[in-house]
Amino acid sequence: MSNFHVEHMTRDEVNVAVDWARNEGWNPGLNDAACFYQTDPKGFFVGKLNDKIIAVGSAVVYDAHFAFCGFYIVDRNYREQGYGIQLTKARLAYIGDRNAGIDGVLDMVDNYARIGYRFAHNNARYALRNHHITAPSYAALVNLNTIPFNQLAQYDRRYFPAPRPQFLSCWIKQNNAHALAYVENNELKGYGVIRKCFEGYKIGPLFADSVTAATALFEHLVQHALGEVVFIDIPENNSLAIDLVKHYGMSKVFATARMYLKGEPQLSRTGIYGITTFELG
Fold first, then answer.
1. From CA 249, how far away is CA 126, in angstroms rounded?
2. Among 73, 109, 148, 237, fewest CB within 10 Å belongs to which?
3. CB within 8 A of 242, min separation 6: which ones?
4. Statement: residue 2 has pLDDT above 80
């Protein structure tokens, strides 16, 4: 291992991590690399052996209290040789004393527990195929980009453990995406984003104060996919999110374990119908 070292990724190397995630079947979005890197340019790590990339991972710092780790992939030819743990130690050193979350693949839960992560709940990806959902008009639905950004950021904070203005400013305006808000009495009551992925489209986040708002947002976001498959990643500790995907006959295709180093943050759980991403929380 003397020729192995861990360093911060360049912007171009984040594209490599996204490609690896695609090859793993995680189906990232077409513009994920740009928005992810903007959130924390120092939060992406690469392990190199003789200057060849053999491991990648992220540890995105949101504020003084919270970070999220993801994108953890070791080249199949170099697994179980100690390279991954070196990368992980570098990421943990970077986040310091902050609480950190991960969406870990289920067969790695025991490994994550050994380095201090505690299980909170499962998240699951659901797919909507061959859909013909009608979307009645709702006066409450407006383009998200017409909402004052400070209002959006404050609303988002109810459903995410830390402020994330850098991320949101990119996420809601990315190409090949559509973002909607649900507004009642000039108050934001929900919002959602759907983006083009390597396969189909993915909704995330989908936050809403009520089933009515969540349903309206979901039905109208789905229209943007023009019949292509639509995915949404739901927290399985919210029965309302489970009811939503079951109502539309969606099928579970993938699951992760949401884990935290210092316990699950206190959020408005019943309003989280779709998490933003498995990579950044």
1. 10
2. 148
3. 234, 236
4. no
Grouping H, G, I as helix, E, B as strand and the rest as coil, residue 270 is helix
The chain-wide mean pLDDT, for the chain, equals: 95
pTM beyond 0.90:
yes
Q: 159: closest CA among 119, 188, 197? A: 188
C-alpha–C-alpha distance, residues 177 and 203, integer Å? 10
Nearest to 261 by CA among 84, 106, 65: 65
- Give phi and psi for 238, each to the nearest 5: -115, 105
Cβ contacts of 221-227, under 8 Å, gap ≥ 24: 221/178, 221/180, 221/192, 221/193, 221/194, 222/128, 222/131, 222/133, 222/135, 222/194, 223/133, 223/135, 224/178, 224/194, 225/131, 225/194, 225/200, 225/201, 227/131
Cβ–Cβ contacts within 10 Å for residue 107, how many? Answer: 8
Which of 92, 125, 105 minimizes the C-alpha distance to 262? 92
Give the length of the chain: 281
Write the single-letter amino acid at 163.
P
Report the percent of the chain where pLDDT is more than 90. 92
Three-state DSSP state, 112: helix
